[in-house]
From TrEMBL:
Quaternary structure note: Homododecamer.
Phylogenetic placement of the source organism: Bacteria, Pseudomonadati, Bacteroidota, Flavobacteriia, Flavobacteriales
GO molecular function annotations of the record: 3-dehydroquinate dehydratase activity
Enzyme Commission code: 4.2.1.10
Sorted UniProt keywords: Amino-acid biosynthesis, Aromatic amino acid biosynthesis, Lyase
Catalysed reaction, written as an equation: 3-dehydroquinate = 3-dehydroshikimate + H2O
Site (Transition state stabilizer): 17
Positions annotated as active site in the UniProt record: 22 (proton acceptor), 97 (proton donor)
HAMAP family reported in the protein's UniProt record: AroQ
Binding of substrate, residues: 71, 77, 84, 98-99, 108
Protein name as catalogued: 3-dehydroquinate dehydratase
InterPro entries in UniProt: DHquinase_II, DHquinase_II_CS, DHquinase_II_sf
Native source species: Flagellimonas hadalis
Annotated function: Catalyzes a trans-dehydration via an enolate intermediate.
Domain of life where this protein originates: Bacteria
């Protein structure tokens, strides 16, 4: 089972960024925990602050890997391009958010990713990623 976590803009700052919303753990530390927790999964991690790089990564892995776990961060609410990439590939995409975006500003209530996603997990903190991996293990 080969899965990739793709994180969008500002998620490289997890641990430092608005800890009251996103927690105080860095993604690198959390990723190590995930690798230990799911030794049977070949787990990869990619982060970019650049929309086109996220699209290129989705295209690159999206006909080959078993699953994509995508937190497009702020691009979730703006990017027709990432939304189209999710629809274009054959690998199932699970959309993930750390915070419950529906409890937050109205502009975060819209997702351009969800229409192409297999499912959406949000609001469980970093555990949202954990749950996304479990969803692929069935
Ligand atoms: C986020 C929610 C987005 O609205 C925000 O722009 C982010 C992170 C989340 O994981 O809760 O950067 O995707």
């Amino acid at each position: 089972m080969k899965l990739i976590i793709i994180n969008g803009p500002n998620l490289n700052l997890l641990g430092k960024r608005e800890p009251e919303v996103y927690g105080s753990t860095t993604f690198e530390d959390y990723f190590k925990q995930l690798q230990q927790q799911f030794p049977q999964v070949e787990l990869e991690y990619f982060q970019s602050n650049i929309e086109g790089e996220i699209i290129s990564k989705i295209q690159k892995v999206g006909f080959d890997y078993d699953g994509i776990i995508l937190n497009a961060a702020a691009y979730t609410h703006t990017s027709v391009g990432i939304g189209d990439a999710v629809k274009a590939v054959t690998t199932p995409v699970v959309e993930v958010h750390i915070s419950n975006t529906h409890k937050r500003e109205e502009y975060r209530h819209v997702s351009y990713i969800s229409p192409g996603a297999k499912g959406v997990i949000l609001g469980f903190g970093l555990q949202s990623y954990d749950l996304a991996i479990q969803s692929f293990l069935g």
